[in-house]
Batch of 2 targets.
Target 1
Amino acid sequence: MQTGLSYFCFIAVLILVLVRLLYSYGLTASFSKTVPHLDLTFTSGEVREAALIDRITKVYTDNWDLKSISAYHKFVKTLKIQNQPRLREQSILEPSSIEVIGIDLTKYPFVIPLELSTSLNNSGYANPYTVKELLWEMMKEDNYVVVNKAMANLFIPRSMNLEDTTVQDFDISDGITDRFLGKVRIIAVLDDFQDTPRMITSLPTAWKISGSESYSGIYIKMKRENEIEEVQRVSAGKIKSVLGKTTVNIENWKEGESRQQKLFSIFNAIFWLIIIAILLLSTFGGILGIYRNFVVKRHALIIFQNLGMSEFQLFKILTGICLLSLLSGLILAFLTLWGFENLFFSLLLKPLQSIVPVASLTVDWPLIMAWGAGMFVGYFLIFLLFLWIIINNKKQLQV
Amino acid sequence: MKIILILAAFISISVSQVLAGIPDVCQATEPEECPRSCVLLKSGDFLLGNKESIFSDEMPAHRRKIEEIYISQYEITSWDFLQYINAQETFPIENSQFIKDDVAETKFDSYPCNPARRITWYQAQSFCESLGGRLPTEAEWEYAAVVDIEHNYQKMTWSTGNQFPLFLSNEDEEEEDEWEEEEGDEEEEGDDEDEELADEKGEVENEDEGEDEAEEFDFLSPVLVEVQESLRGVNRLHGMMGNVWEWTADWYLPYPEDESSALKKQRDGYWKVIRGGSYQNSARPELLRPTLRNRLHPKKYLENVGFRCVWPSQGD
């Protein structure tokens, strides 16, 4: 009964861990790449001082290894969008509330990786831009924009394939005053999992549309994703001295508000509830099981003691056996991982890579070694505890 | 007399050995106006990547060793690819009919010597394999594009602000001029020898014609052109810059620090590397640098992506 229950718990935990890992890995891999990792928002109002932006940027670039950093200008505005009647009939979209984000597009990589967006067909040619072509166009042409899927749905019918759509030229006007704000060319669509229609463009174009030459915050993209939380925590203190009266709020990408993030939070909460319940049950069951075995076997130990073996000798022999079995298990596990690393990679990561653009990760050996050593010490301490109980519990041999 | 005979025998043996090393596919083809030839790239090492670039994936520049290979002098043509499709009992690719229709019936009659395009990486690779070759690795491709094999000269800096026509930034042109002045005499002698060897091997067309071509087509065409009319670069290779992007064998992964770490971890990625720019980039010379790494999913195909093959030298 106990064995059956242990098996059940073990398999249930494994399945849950696997589902969670796949879900979080897939989501993290795809989603963390489409958004900035850290969002430093000016809570005391928008900033116009470029020198302040430079000072904050310097704090980050001096202290951490960044992939990219850029001040941004973000706002929501009701815009009227009307296409330039170049190839087809003119159509005017109902004024819609659109979030516009202007970022620094003069330096690559961008804080929002526009290279992951789906390019529309290059005008004049029957094919989309390749990645570098798309990036270069965005770097060179101020009025080129990338929109998210929610916004693409406003002008591309759902039935139409994105790859069959040619780049779109639009005139943008204020949805309320009807004032002309500028021309933009939509060249790609980014799937950023947001429900709000969103347009990503260069800072000058965003300033032109909003009418205000200011910064709403700074986006940061880290080189190492495992540093995000640490940088979020530590940087708040480090930038205080350069901020003056300006106040900021630093958020990481997981604290965002997209559908996927909300779903993931709910799933995560349920996952941890179940995991903790199972782990508690199985830990109690496991410890009781081991203790029961020791209690049963203590008769054998008492026989050894009655045969004249000292407590210390018994302790040494049993500790030696335990150490050997734990060490051999540890070495076997390491050898398996080391020897079959490529096989595991092709079975676990490669299928994922065919779905989402995940780079091949290298095994973090120091971390694995640390975990291995930690588990080894943990098990060994539990063993010593039981051994201590058994040896000191001098029960008479029952005949 | 005896010495002359021995010398003649020696030369004829050497030439036949060289000829024996050339893959069959590098020889003449039909229709005759569609060229098909190879260039022998001698082994050597060079600096792969760029020391400075606006695109960080071109860095770090690191040394790579290249084995001796034959590389197609021209991009693979629609004609050649059509022969390949027709030779297959079942062409195991979803869009084979599309390619046949497009290449054979609609466009072939007019432009058989245009580079084969709308080809996935897998199609390109299987084409090369059917001829006993493979796609060039990224390093091989760049080696062929930047290292003048005969003179063992590599351009070291590639500015991101090249002036049109491409290939050399002003700075590079100066370097090149200096180098040409220094090497001028040797080059002339070298050219004569090369010409003789080329004639013997049947590797390249008449050198004079080649020079005419170089003059005539020494610009980047803003429209697709036949493979022999595309820009001629170092090593007499046509179309390395412009005309169509070219598939390479490698996954798009960050450059390793050095060659040893490159060999240590050869893992799969999501995209394959494409190189060389296309006619669609004629207004964007910054995209027409030999060190620029572009990428495309291996199952995708585009109007402006083609390929060329390499063959291991049989002397290996």
Target 2
Amino acid sequence: MSELQHVKLHAGLYFLAALLLVGQANWFYLVGDYDRILLPALLAPLLITAALMRLGQPETARLSAYLVLVCGYLLVAIELPGESSLAPFWLGLPPVLTLLLLPLGPAMLLNLTLTPIWLLLGESLLDRDLALGYLSLVMVAGLAPWEILHQRALLKATDPLDEECDAIRRSALHDRLQSECERAELLDQRLAVLVIHLPQLEMAGEQFGAGARRALLTSLCDTVLRCSRDHDLLGREGEADFWLVLPDTSENGALLVRQRLKESLQSTVLLDTGRVDSRLYDCHLGKGESPQRFLQRLQITTQRHAES
Amino acid sequence: MQSKYKVGLLRLNLVLAALLLALMAPASENLTEALLLWMAAGWLAVSAALVEFSHRRPALVPWQLLPSLLLAALLFTAPERFPLWLWAWAALIMLPQPGWMSGLNLLLAMLSWSWLAREMPPEQAAFAGALLAALLLLGLSRSRDLAPLRGVASRRAHLVPGLRLWPRAQLARDLIRERARVHRDGVHGELMLLRTERQRLWPQAQRLCDLTRSFEHCYRIDGRTLATLLLSADAEQAEGRRTELLARMGPVRRLRTTPLDQVVSLAEECRALERQPATASAQRGVEHV
């Protein structure tokens, strides 16, 4: 689900919750329970504010989650002290709401610190079984965000592709470079690497936003794909630094690829950043040079040219 | 490894949850309730033992189904003891899961809500139901978050971090590339398929990765079949390497090697492996096409 859909769904849900509270206030009015009208009537505009804030900047969006959380807490806090048998039922709402709205760490901390407060609020709730039930709900419900984090970390560790573009990640790139060096040595072939630096990338992100940044990265990956062979390998060494590994390529061949790539990139014009600017250098695996040594040499070259 | 710490903490959380449920079990009023609590605690404890940082054990559907069924059963047998656990549905629906499981969870959540609602005043029940529906939607949006990412990445991701082992879909792509490369370089390349025992697949995969060179990738075809692309200077050297590899791999149930330029398709090779008679001696199973 895209970020925009998320924002819309959340704002819509907050808005519906506000309507629900207005409905509840009306219900209290109809049954003549005038003392209890005040809270839902006050919280409904707060939730509408939260819905509008969710649509705004990321900082205000985070604030809106806390606003909704406070509304939920107040609603439950009013329900708990009563004599009603429903108090244990409402006790389960706050921890789950917290886990849904906040990141795992803060949510768990908040849930555990609030435990005595919830249990003390309702006099009928001070009972070992209910306390255990509450704690196990906190622990078990916390497992769901854990699982999401776990899966995400796993994908990050095992997916060779970079998150932003179609180049492979740094760790995968180093592995593949090493194996290509070994292959070149075994088959007695040449190996060349083109070091590519995109000087506009940082500026594009800062001035024109994520879209321009992505457009620049995509145009690089597409151009490289067009200009290179099937088994050439594009990897992302740094933020704006890429390596194009060219197996079985002589110095002349690498120069040719370099020239073709440079011209191709120059003729690409993007909406925000204009002509794609690039700096390219070629490195070659020396006879008898170890893969580690070659990797070091490449890293030094990359650093030197990124700074100049 | 940068993410190892997460497994430790996750395991701790699982164990704590299992302990809490086990503590609740002795206070149960009847046997079913106690049994259900013990089962839930057991599920969490076994999950804690199984959790690991790899794609080796993809979450099995029956294994994921169990907590949903247990929660529903607990809410039905003892609604007066665990009413607060109704809200746990919002957390269960947050787990990454296939579409039909989300549907089932929603259905079970609705059923258990209506079961609890019998004891409530109607307006409270309606209010609680609306709130629960909102929370379920919030949870559902979190679970859908990861789904597209997983779908695409699972076809190209390593199966175990740090191990040179790839899924079957990757082999289909690499096969075409490698065939062209081998042809250009003028060397001898071959596709090797190995059939092992189901329980010995992962140790064998580890050994296969250790025994091959770093540019010869290894693949897991299915629960008991491994594959690798071997490169040698010529057919004779290939023969020697194969013998040496097999000697160090230990027993293999079936084996099939085909030179890369004769491989029609991966599916065809797998079918041929299937037709091959299982031989006690792996060496005799080698077939030269």
